[in-house]
Amino acid sequence: MDWRSVNFDWNRARAFLVTAEEGSLSAAARALGMAQPTLGRQVKALEQELGVVLFERAGKGLLLTPDGLALLDHVRAMGEAANAISLTSFGQSQAIEGNICIAASPVYAAYLLPPIIARLRHIEPGITVEIVASNFASDLNRREADIAIRNFRPVEPELIAKKIRDVPARLYATPEYLEKIGSPRTAADLNSASFISIDRTGAFINGLNSMGLSLTEKNFPIFTENYLVMWELVKQGVGIGILDGNIGDAEPSVCRVMDTLEPLMFPIWLVARHELKTSRRVRIVFDLLSEELSK
Amino acid sequence: MDWRSVNFDWNRARAFLVTAEEGSLSAAARALGMAQPTLGRQVKALEQELGVVLFERAGKGLLLTPDGLALLDHVRAMGEAANAISLTSFGQSQAIEGNICIAASPVYAAYLLPPIIARLRHIEPGITVEIVASNFASDLNRREADIAIRNFRPVEPELIAKKIRDVPARLYATPEYLEKIGSPRTAADLNSASFISIDRTGAFINGLNSMGLSLTEKNFPIFTENYLVMWELVKQGVGIGILDGNIGDAEPSVCRVMDTLEPLMFPIWLVARHELKTSRRVRIVFDLLSEELSK
DNA sequence: TGTTTGATATGCATATATGCATGGATTGGC
DNA sequence: GCCAATCCATGCATATATGCATATCAAACA
């Protein structure tokens, strides 16, 4: 076969791809962990090598030329293939040493993961861990994470998912706050209580009312989208918040609100890519997470 | 997006692809026009980078491992895309044939441009060149030229201008002439020297005096508006002339006058129409001029 | 068994690419 | 209209990769 046609610098194609997708050399350099001048020179070199003007240098940022646009599709294909190489080789690597990236919600990342990570580091000191704490489901297929802890059944059919168990969500507040609002014992007693809201859409109210309460918007004077902030507010005695029962029960400064209330149940799913089946490292961490989260 | 998964050395993937397809490092090196040790090191580095053993080193030739085989499909996909990039860009770079008109002063046209044009013709035989040698700024907007070399910042805001660098203007004469006037070493020694003037307005005298000389009209017995004529007069030992230091220094028959004299600095600007951004042909010539004039 | 052939590794001088620091230019906000 | 922020380009010291010459190795063959 004649390989001359692929005999250009492939790294420069990578530079072009990331630059085009990110929109600027600086952003691309940050994404790739390289220096901006390096990427600039690589793109310029690719233009010379291919004899095509890829970008218009336009003061702020770069502008893709029509020629560059025409090439972008093919470069994207290269990137997809490169991604597949990376994922496949990651799965085939039998080395236990290496990095594992775990995605979880901020609450789980802050309160559930630390002791598990500590144990993992003790058992397998060769494994380093990266934690992506986000409320948004990380894209495992793009390797934003290797393992994800989610509270819903994953929709991606190509992913491996394991349901760990159902956990209760309960209401918590400080004893001082509960005393202040008259130590509520029935749902009606909570009609004048303050709740810390964690969404704007009203789904939170509906969820609580489905537990048997009858709350209105006036019960939610405080809003934050951040669960950790909500929890700190609850611990400070500002109002009532809802949280995973296992985490709430472990916090000594708060207590359950109306223990008789039936808790809201939700599932914990552990999700991984197909490489789980071939990579020892992923398997070890997955199994450990599964075991610890079942407790 | 997360680009970490494509952030490995793509050239090493190319090395793996061609090696696997050709069956040996030596054959792959021949196909790619590289040295065999280079390819061997690239493949080895890829194995380390991915944490996968790709080849079994077996005395005669290499043997693909199952892991390597699993990756080969994805690497082939990369190669296919790379091939598409190469073909597409080749088709697009076909359109560079045509004429380019370059405007420059007669001196630059005579002494700076010829080697650059020669190189351009060598690199891009499809491009033909027209040179407008004039002291008057050609009107690019009227397409009197596509690219202009000027010694001042262009005033037209719609033109694209790139400052190449500042060049020194120095005094030159033949060694014989300098000896004849007493080998001048100070500014005062030049008070009886003959200069070849290249303007009538007196700006030339003022320019020289701003360098530290103290000349009067009697020092300018010869006038020509043509720099080339002036330079020939200097080379014939008629008197002292001023010229771009890079051109003057390259002329063996003359030498600098009073080397201690601080040279008069003036800029070189490369100017083009907005078309530069869309025309590969203009871009190629512009970049070449920029590169060569920077030397 | 010795020899030839075609392959992969290694040492070293050199070429090439990279990062850092900085300059220059443009945009957006106050 | 000025200032700050952001982005691209350039110069230079350094790190990295490459090529050449050569050593080493294994298999085929006389």
Task: Describe the overall structure.
The structure is a homodimer of 295-residue chains. Chain A is an alpha/beta fold and 295 residues long. Chain A folds into three domains: 4-92, Orthogonal Bundle (Arc Repressor Mutant, subunit A), CATH 1.10.10; 98-166 and 267-294, D-Maltodextrin-Binding Protein, domain 2 (3-Layer(aba) Sandwich), CATH 3.40.190; 167-265, Periplasmic binding protein-like II (D-Maltodextrin-Binding Protein, domain 2), CATH 3.40.190.10. In chain A, 42% of the residues lie in helices and 19% in strands. Chain A contains ten helices and eleven strands. In chain A, strands 3, 4, 5, 6, 9, 10 and 11 form a seven-stranded mixed sheet that branches. In chain A, strands 1-2 form a two-stranded antiparallel sheet. In chain A, strands 7-8 form a two-stranded parallel ribbon. In chain A, α1 crosses α4. The radius of gyration of chain A is 25 Å and the shape is elongated. The termini of chain A are far apart. The mean pLDDT of chain A is 88. At the A-B interface, α1 and α4 of A face α1, α4 and α10 of B. Chain A binds a DNA duplex (30 and 30 nucleotides) through α2 and α3.
Keywords for this structure?
homodimer, 295 residues, alpha/beta, Arc Repressor Mutant, subunit A, D-Maltodextrin-Binding Protein, domain 2, 3 domains, seven-stranded mixed beta sheet, two-stranded antiparallel ribbon, 11 strands, elongated, DNA-binding
Task: Give the % helix of chain A.
Answer: 40-55%
How many domains of chain A? The number is: 3
SS summary, helix count of chain A? 10
Radius of gyration from the alpha-carbon trace of chain A, in angstroms: 25 Å
- Give the C-level CATH assignment of the largest domain in chain A: Alpha Beta
Output the CATH topology of the largest domain in chain A: D-Maltodextrin-Binding Protein, domain 2
The SS-based structural class of chain A is alpha/beta
- The CATH superfamily of the largest domain in chain A bears the name Periplasmic binding protein-like II
